[in-house]
Amino acid sequence: ETGVTQSPTHLIKTRGQQVTLRCSSQSGHNTVSWYQQALGQGPQFIFQYYREEENGRGNFPPRFSGLQFPNYSSELNVNALELDDSALYLCASSLGGTGHSGNTIYFGEGSWLTVV
Amino acid sequence: DAKTTQPPSMDCAEGRAANLPCNHSTISGNEYVYWYRQIHSQGPQYIIHGLKNNETNEMASLIITEDRKSSTLILPHATLRDTAVYYCIVTNTGKLIFGQGTTLQVKP
Of B14, B7, B18, which is closest to residue B75 (Cα–Cα)? Predict the structure, then answer.
């Protein structure tokens, strides 16, 4: 419905492993942001990508990294998984960049990650 | 930290208007007010946003005070499906800092 698609929808990983989550932004949107939402909490901003460059980062360690591709799709990579990384990971896309001009920001349905 | 303050919970009768307040007393001149809602286990759903003028769309109306220090989201005829957590966010960068939001319970 929002045009933002995420995959996979659910996955289970073992502590210490690495995971890659994917996001396809809405057509024409050049900015993608990633959020982590632990159970019972509001989403927390991880980082934002604008035209393939990181454009702001929240309070997350370097083992959280990302990429944005020329078609503006994006990946979130998490290395050395910890139990506390279990959460819903959300992707949001918009048309914008360094100068936000009040464009609509749409979220995908998220990827549920469970670390055991 | 979130730059907005919202009541933790509210109730509304089905069919009545739901008025959800948000305080953003430290808002700067170029920050927009965004409203999202989230139903359990789903991604946040965009509702509406504005800068200083009141806004209306098919889902809701956004009333922003003249000094821009507070706003109200109005759902004109609440239904049971409007039961959700509602987030008010201000931003001028497109990076959304979520607070705890308001849990709206629509009752029959």
Answer: B18
Closest partner residue to A43 (CB to CB) among B44, B51, B93 is B44
Residue A83 backbone zone (phi > 0: left; psi -120 to 50: alpha; other: beta) = alpha
pLDDT digits (tens, 9 = 90+) for A34-48: 999 999 899 999 999
pLDDT of residue A99: 57
Predicted confidence at residue B92, as pLDDT, reads 84
Cis peptide before A8 (omega within 30 of 0): yes
Exposed e or buried b for every residue in A37-65, given b needs 16+ CB within 10 A? beeeebbbbbbbbbeeeebeebeeeeebb
For residue B43, list chain A residues with Cβ-Cβ distance below 8 A.
2, 4, 90, 107-110
Whether residues B94 and A2 touch (CB distance < 8 A) is answered with: no
pLDDT at B5 over 90: yes
